[in-house]
Amino acid sequence: MISVIVPIFHTEKYLQKCVNSILCQTYSDLEVILVDDGTTIYEANLCDDFAKRDARVKVIHKLNGGLSSARNVGLELARGDYVGFVDSDDYIHPLMYETLLKNMMGSNANISTCEVYKTYEKEEIKGSITNKIKVIHEKDMFYELSRDPLNMVIMCNKLYKKELFDNIKFPIDKYHEDEFVIHHLLYEAKSVVYTDAKLYFYLQNRENSIGNEFSEKKLQDAWNAFDNRCQFIKEINHQDYLRARVDQIWLTMNNYKRCKNNNSNNYLVYRKKFFNLIRDFKIWSKAGFFVSAGWCVFIICPSLYFCLIDYKNRN
């Protein structure tokens, strides 16, 4: 059985489409755990209505504790051998869990993942089910995490062996929860099976969303999550440690830009972090000529660096 955990908080406009997409899966041996994380009475009643209509639905009503808290509660109650997560403003392809489980069983992997399709309100899409698969083994996992961060990092486009979460929990009171745990899960899994089928529909710019608003805490949590990943990769003596640090330098520069653009003095914090990171000369050799040249421009004139990046992206 697959336990699907859906944390719910102020997404009533999207909730029915989300839950219906799970209940209509071609793989029907499901336990759908709706975690009402202190949301509105109307939305809580919607959850209860789903449970009345379908015996596979379990509802938990709790005080608001955030996404990590809701996921952790769901994990504690999950009875399936496999577990998945769906955000309550997203939805999934009818074949998603059948495909992910089939790929997992066929490859003996402990995590099965698919492509994410970024979608927008009122856009109707069907996704793709080409199912060209590859198995990612331990030595290549952190390279793939660097190469394809969207599909590798987020929790919701995957199916997991439940036992992977025996000693892994989502961090409380943190943004970028997925970033804090994904490297631990990949390490425990040892192998991941990937399909290029676009089966998870990730809603962008939803109505009343605050996800894109500037927040110093969000930037700091993102940086801390990445630093945690780098330290972990170093501790296990993995070959992609320096590659991870190169990515962290990019994140540091991006955080600098966002602080500067929003008149936050924290840009000075990220400038200092940047200089601390580039002191490791091994990172320069890993970065290569063009990336290193960009760092040199950033050292001399950060605004020029970002102008050059913007020009490159436009062309």
TrEMBL record:
The protein, known as: Glycosyltransferase involved in cell wall bisynthesis
UniProt-listed PANTHER family: GLYCOSYLTRANSFERASE, GLYCOSYLTRANSFERASE EPSH-RELATED
Alphabetized UniProt keyword annotations: Glycosyltransferase, Membrane, Transferase, Transmembrane, Transmembrane helix
Regions that span the bilayer: 287-309
Pfam families referenced in this protein's UniProt entry, alphabetically: Glycos_transf_2
Gene source species: Anaerorhabdus furcosa
Domain of life: Bacteria
Alphabetized InterPro entries for the sequence: Glyco_trans_2-like, Nucleotide-diphossugar_trans
